[in-house]
Amino acid sequence: MNFKIKDIKKLLHDQNYLEFDRLLVAMEKNLKEDITIYILDDVGSRLNVINTFDELEEFKKLMIQVYGIYGYF
Prior knowledge:
55% of the residues lie in helices and 16% in strands. It is an alpha+beta fold. The chain has a 3-stranded mixed sheet with strand order 1-2-3. The model has no long low-confidence stretch (mean pLDDT 86).
């Protein structure tokens, strides 16, 4: 499943934590079904590939660190 980084950045920039949480839940559901998650840049190139729950946690931590969304917790 593909997700665009610009859409994720917009959610975090707009402090739309509920939608960000829904996105993470959707990603978790895909991982449970052994579906690989691709994070794409603006031109469709792969920035990140998520295959495991640990990789998803690392991605989430990175997004939180980069965008400073301490209110998410």
